[in-house]
Structures are given as structure tokens and as C-alpha cells.
Amino acid sequence: MEATRSAATSDEWSFEAPPFGARGPVSEQLLAAFRRPAADADETLAGLPVALADAIAATDDIARDDDLQLSLLLLHGLHYGSVVDADEEWEWHPSTVAARVAIERAFEHELRERVGSVAVPSADAEAVAAALFKLTKPTPGPSVARFVAKQATDEQAREYVVLRSVYTLKEADAQTWSIPRLSGRAKAALVEIQADEYGGGRPERMHSAIFARTMRELGLDDRYGAYLDAVPAITIASFNMMSMFGLNRRLRGASAGHYAAYEMTSSLPNRMLGDGFRRLGYGEEVTDYFDEHVEADAVHEQIAGRDLAGGLAEHEPSLVPDIMFGAVASMMIDGWAAERTLDAWTAGRSALREAVDLGRSAQLEEVS
User: Fold this and answer.
1) Is the Cβ–Cβ distance between 220 and 365 less than 8 Å?
2) First CA to last CA distance, the chain
3) Which residues are registered as beta bridge partners of 4?
4) Residue 307 DSSP label
């Protein structure tokens, strides 16, 4: 959804309303402001710094704060595009940049406090990779992927896809921001992974495109943000954390560590997820996304651990603590999100914030 300048006058804009609403005073003011040109910022964003400071001061858990996480998604979305309709001048407007940085600093501070002290390996590629593989070693306990594989209902499986759509419809974009911030072995490793994420030059095989097809096959709306109202803040926080790490050069170590942990915890869960959707009667058009990641991420985890994170550690030893911080933060936030989902499902409740139309698969329609 991109804003377009009217042919009548440079001050008039045509906007498509976002498929989601505000969650509090900060996101409400941002959404209202983005309906107008950035030149009107003195009027539309008057009082935002005070409102934002009050919201940050009032929250005791920014990772689960609906208003602040949605606001940060909106502000990051100005850099991505296709998140909220807006005059492109908003992207680097001093008011929006200041707001983004304010929320990011508070979010990062909370993450570092929650992560706490982390064991730091030596600045050696193999040592860093070994530490990351140890951190992300699969455990036999409950997980969302195991639940989907063994017992999820069709509705719960669809909820999983809705929750995952916040990141996956823009899969890999958050990490791509880091490419120009790296050099040598780490840069080459990230480019190698991203080339695969983007389909190796085949747009229909971009992982985000494959996921969008999965959504369509399930009868779901694949527009970005179509189900955002139903997604809890902690799920949005997971994507916001990736974007924050990627967009800030000083956090390039955290981005590398996060991506390594993310890839290392992907292959086995995606095998389970694919099996779960097959158990529910779905075919290749739905399971293709999960099946693609079983093999791809088994390769990516080696590259991300040894060459991306490990290579960065050897090139910039001072970043090793941040590499490990990013990896632990990834496990922590995604663990919180998974716990929330499992608690809801095992209690017989929806994992979504509100009821939505979860569609109907064309495949299952044919079977029935």
C-alpha cells in the first residue's frame, strides 16, 4: 500500500486505509498523521514526544505493550513500505526517526535487562558456532511445532499461519539491512543465505512468496497486515526486534547472532509443521513452505553459525557479546510468544487477540 500524490495538487494525497486499527494513543496519532503529508507534521504530530515518553514510562513490559509494539511496527514499516499507506517523506522525517529511536532504545534496554549476563565464547568462528549450537539445541519439551504436528485442530493450524504472517510475509528483509554493515566472510555468508531466501533469482520461489501462496491456499488474506488486529504484541515484538537489530549498525552483532539462532531452530520445527498440515489433509501447495525450509535451513544454520556469526566474531572480536545477546534474545522473545500460544491452545482458547475469519482451504473444499 503506497501513498500516491494527487495530480490536482502536490499537497493532496490518496490513501488506502490500513486493514488494521490503532491500539492506543501513540499508534492512533501515528496512523492519523500518516493519512496526511509529512509537511503537516508540526500539526499532526504535535504532542507526540510527550505522549510517547509517557507511554514508555508507564509500561512495565514493552515487549507485550500493544500500543508501543504496533507503533514501532508502523515506524519500521516506513522503511519497508507496504505496511501502512504514507507519504514517503515520512520515512526520514525527524519526528518519526526520533519516535522510532525512542521506542527502540526502551525496547533494547528491556531486552538487555531480561537477557542478563550471557556466557561469551572466544572470538573464534568454531567456538562461537559451538556456543550457538549448544544454546539452540532441540529439547524434548512442548513446542508449537510439536503441537501442530500431533494434535492441532484445523483452526489452530490456521491461527499459527496468521501469527507467523507478521514476519514471514517479509521474510529475510529484516536481516538484509545488515548486508552493507558487514564485510568479508560475514557479508559473503549473509548474502549467500539471502540469495536462497529470495528464491535464487526466481520470484515465485522467494520464501515470502511461497508463504503467501500457502495463505491463499488456506483461503486466507495474504495482504500484509490483514490480520494484524488479531496478533498479540509479543508476536509483533519478535519482528520488531529483527528490524531493530538490522536497521542499527551498532547492533550488527546482535543481528548476526539472532539470525544464526533463528536458522538453527528452524529445520526440525518446519518438518513437524509440514507433517501437521499433512495430517490435517493438506497437500503440497500448503506444505511447500515448510518442506522448503527443512532442507534449506539445515544448510543455512551452518553458514549462519560458522561464517556469519563466527566470521563476524573473528573480524570484530568486540562484537562477540552482542552476537550472543542477539541469539539469546531471539530464543527468549520467540519462547514467550510460543508459550502464550500453547497456553491458549491447551486451554481450549484462541491464540489470537480477537476472532477473525480464518478462511476455508480450496483443497479441503474439494475433499468435502
Assistant:
1) no
2) 36
3) 14
4) I
Long-range contacts: 84-88, Cβ < 8 Å, 24+? 84/1, 84/18, 84/31, 84/34, 84/225, 85/1, 85/2, 85/3, 85/15, 85/16, 85/17, 85/18, 85/34, 85/35, 86/3, 86/34, 87/3, 87/13, 87/34, 87/36, 87/37, 87/38, 88/2, 88/3
Say if CB 27 and CB 74 are below 8 A apart.
yes
pLDDT over 80 (residue 195): yes
β-strand partners of 5: 13
User: How far, in Å, CA of 70 to CA of 64, rounded?
Assistant: 10
Name the pLDDT band for 364 (thresholds 50, 70, 90).
Answer: low
274 pLDDT above the threshold of 80: yes
pLDDT at 14: 67
Closest listed residue to residue 264, CA positions, set 240, 299, 225:
299
Residues 6+ apart with CB under 8 A from 10: none
CATH of span 125-367? 1.20.910.10
CATH 1.20.910.10 boundaries in the chain? 125-367
Q: pLDDT at position 218, please?
A: 97
Under the phi-then-psi rule, with left for phi > 0, alpha for psi from -120 to 50, and beta for the rest, what region is 4? Answer: beta
State the pTM of this model: 0.93
198 in Cβ contact with 206 (< 8 Å):
yes
Asked whether residue 101 carries a pLDDT value surpassing 50, the answer given is: yes
- H or E element at residue 4: strand 4-5
**6: confidence class by pLDDT, cuts 50, 70, 90:** very low
Residue 349 identity (one-letter amino acid): R
Q: Residue 295: what pLDDT?
A: 85
